[in-house]
Design brief:
The protein is an alpha/beta fold. The strands form two sheets. The protein has a six-stranded mixed β-sheet, with helices on both faces. The protein has a single domain, classed as Glycerol-3-phosphate (1)-acyltransferase (3-Layer(aba) Sandwich). Helices cover 48% and strands 12% of the residues. It is built from ten helices and eight strands.
Length: 320
């Protein structure tokens, strides 16, 4: 992977090296402060959601989403003022905050969430994604995720799933139940089909045929499509790349990430995907997997062009 150094030849000076952790500490304090500021009214709204009658809860839910979008906007503003990041973002035209989408994305690091929130905030419905059940206990954020109806999933270790195959059906059933709550409101559900963050070591262990991706898992996607049915207007296929070669969260806070590339493709949902039985129908399962492999092959070519080719032309996505 080619890296584009932000420093002139000779590397960073001592002053620049010292500035990195200071900038990271400043970014962390600002983001943490922004989180605390927005969590105060958010937790007041959570209390209201718990004590008010059920007929009032939709209004409280809308308030919670408005507060969460404000928190995201604050984070976006802070990072934009502290860091200089060149954004290459394409494919945002025609997005509708009143429509429902299934968002598919490759997974490079936890910075992906921050990138997606910046790109999509208030352009599509509030972005939700499946979260491990253990993260419910994260201070401040765990309660916020629960109140905002993030779907929590109980992940079973691979060895245990091999011993008890019925646990795979249990995971799929949890996905179905989580999707049911979104039937009456616009929703954008994010699915990282790789299931884990990409590393070259994981790619080698999997025997992945792709250069910049892990193998994609399509079961959760298929069940989401079946559960939400025709409520979904389309699939948003999102590809994220970090041409600098660095993509850790501390890299973001310290300013080591200087360029981010994001491509969004709006894909039609194959009609047969809305009614097939992924668990029981082998032919249907093969068709879904073939469709995902085709999407993944195109995504891998796009990543190769970005990470191994000339730098793209930057385009600002807006403040969000």
């Amino acid at each position: 992977m080619r890296r584009h150094d932000a420093y002139p030849r000779g590397g960073p000076t001592l002053r620049q090296r010292l500035a990195r952790p200071l900038r990271g500490a400043l970014s962390l304090c600002v983001v943490a402060g922004n989180t605390v500021v927005w969590c105060i009214p958010l937790y007041v709204a959570i209390l209201a959601k718990l004590v008010l009658p059920s007929r009032a809860r939709p209004a409280v839910s809308r308030l919670l989403v408005w507060l969460a979008e404000g928190w995201i906007g604050g984070n976006n503003l802070a990072l934009r003022l502290i860091h200089r990041i060149r954004w290459d973002v394409k494919g945002l035209a025609g997005l509708d905050p009143g429509a429902s989408y299934l968002v598919l994305c490759n997974h490079r690091s936890w910075v992906d969430i921050t990138v997606l929130q910046r790109v999509f905030n208030r352009r599509i419905p509030f972005l939700r994604f499946f979260i491990k059940q253990e993260l419910l206990w994260v201070p401040l954020l765990g309660g916020a995720w629960w109140a905002l109806d993030y779907p929590f999933m109980k992940r079973h270790p691979q060895a245990r799933r091999q011993q008890r195959p019925e646990l795979a059906n249990e995971d799929l059933e949890r996905t179905r139940r989580a999707c049911e709550r979104f039937r009456r409101v616009p929703v954008a559900l994010l699915n990282f089909l790789e299931g884990t963050r990409f590393t070259p070591e994981k790619r080698m262990r999997q025997g992945s045929p792709y250069r910049h991706l892990l193998n994609a898992k399509s079961g959760g996607m298929a069940l989401t499509l079946a559960a939400l049915g025709r409520q979904l207007s389309s699939i948003l296929d999102v590809t994220i790349a970090y041409p600098d070669g660095r993509c850790g969260f501390w890299d973001l806070l310290t300013g080591r990430i200087t360029r981010v590339s994001v491509w969004v493709r709006k894909l039609p949902i194959p009609p047969e995907f809305l009614s097939g039985d992924y668990r029981q129908d082998a032919d249907f399962r093969d068709r879904v997997q073939a469709w995902v492999r085709a999407v993944w092959q195109e995504k891998d070519v796009l990543l190769a062009r970005c990470l191994e080719g000339p730098p793209p032309v930057s385009e600002a996505p807006g403040s969000g």
